[in-house]
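Q: Could you fold this chain for me?
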Amino acid sequence: MGRKSKKQMEEESAAIEGFLSNQNYKKANTLINAKGRSTLLVQKLFAVSIAKAELNPEDKTLEANIYGTDLKRIFGVKGGSFYEHIKSAIEPAKNKPSILDWRIIYSNDETQEIEAINVITDASFKNGVLNVRYNNKITPYLANLQSNYTVLSLAEAVQLNSVYSFRLYEILKAEMDRQRAITKRQGPYYVQYNLTDLKLRLGIIDSQADPEIISALKKGNPDYDKIERRAENTDGAGRLKTFGNFKKFALDKAKQELNETTSIWFDYEPVKAGRGGKVVNIRFKIDVNPKVKNSNMEEKTTKKAPAIDEMELYDKVQQLIDEKIMISEIRAILVAANYDYSKIERAYKLAKKSSKKIENLTGWMIRAIEKNWQPTSSEPDMAFGNYEQRTLDFDELERRLVEK
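A: Sure. Below is the predicted structure, expressed as structure tokens.
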């Protein structure tokens, strides 16, 4: 194959971005609310790899393979190698946890159980592919989830610019969905967190930084004052140990990012107690973002393939077609078929049986789908095999994709 043209690369990049906008990942609420410290890159890699992870039936281990070219597009890296970004996530550095250092503590108050584990057992980056394997102890919190989990938007998650925004997105989305399922009512919804507990969930205080913090967290009712004091003796809280900085660099930044760019909206207020008026809790008000509400009202009669179904269809089409095919081409075929896999399968079988050489498989299949060519018909006009890829109107296809 020859080198891709600039237009081809732009079309493929746009297709990946559009495809990503409909992709979700699932996490058990227990894992979402676990305490642990990591970087923003680690969190994003985790989200992307969850969406792509496959379960090994023998050892129940989740493993994900992600191409570096896809990661560059997903994370907005322009030019150069993605190697340095992956290296910074995998190699340990002073005061900066690597992907392998990511430990979490999760508990079950009903069974009074608590466990601290490493999330990722090993990771490698070879030949432009990132391979990640997860601790099989967290497999139940990521694979084959049936209840007590949250569906999160990968597009919304990876475009956030702060690890605290990322974590609050997951935490507040999980709480909003939980309350909505229980109450069966529209928002807003309210939830209150102890300030120190919230810092632990966001990774501002490292739950593994000090033996006394670890010991305190193992108790049913942790002594948060003690944990806060111990954190002040470590670098775990950093510049966010004061409430003013915590408010400015974590809460306010997350509020701006989430309210402007995600499907959830929140506000918050500090709750003070004691003679000095010390902030002890943060009370959140959560709701569906008004932008999403308005959009849903305008488009509630519009038929569109569900995001998860689209992902499954994409995988099925990719497995069906033996020839190498771009993401943009798969999406064009899906749109032409109105997401009807049987039409795509029929068109591909016709193409394989053709006695004439097909120069452009994508264009041929789109024509076969649109003209409803049938196996029982006489062999269709194969002159369409000379159809040029550049004549595919991707803007029109994108418009049709949105409309359906």
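A (continued): Confidence is low (pLDDT under 50) at residues 297-308, 381-404.
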